[in-house]
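Much of the work behind modern protein science is quiet bookkeeping, done one molecule at a time. The fold becomes a row of whole numbers, each drawn from a learned catalogue of backbone shapes. The protein below has been through that process, and both of its lines are reproduced in full.
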Amino acid sequence: MTLLHLFDLDGTLMYGSAAPVEISRQLGLGAEIAALERAFAAREISPHQFSVAAHALWSELTPAHVRAAFDGAPWLAGIRDVWQEIRERGDYCAVISLSPSFFVELLLEWGAHAAHGSLYPEVPFTRPVEAHGILTPEAKVTVADRLCEQFGVGRSDCVAYGDSATDAMLFEVVPVSVAVNARAHLAERATHIYEGRDLREAYQLVGAVRQGVEAS
């Protein structure tokens, strides 16, 4: 029994924050990104519209800003420990996020087998954002299916971890899901609910299920 663990980033691996927020904070643009986040949460703008607006805000962004945002973000404790244990079990772990790929892919350094985000131009920006590269909630399922094929597993072997409406479609197509510090409407769809700041504790909820399956 090989499992593929699929992790959202914003609000899931990162407590109470998101990659665009942390990036914008480095540029002194906290109020501006907060307004965009509110509009996106209210579904007033699409993922592509959000990305175009964020790209415009980040005209002065440098790789040093990105690294500082990543290093200073409020990550859950135990991420690297969980991914190391997943690897040692012979399972797989991946991150699928609507946030910029140049940020999401830094999580490969922590042991993720794969990390997929919305495709932005290289930093510093010299090109516009292209709509086809921006992930949507529906695209999360598409990416998950590609990862299943890559790792030789099926949807029935997947565990999803998320916190918001952008994770709902993925939760609907996998058998095990963990709502991590999630909004109520997503928690209602999850097989497990976790509130806290340590990914090891959320992962243990899934481990208990796996042990029961292996023992039966």
Remarks:
- The chain has a mean pLDDT of 95.
- The longest strand covers residues 92-100.
- Strands lie at 4-7, 92-100, 114-118, 158-162, 176-180, 192-194.
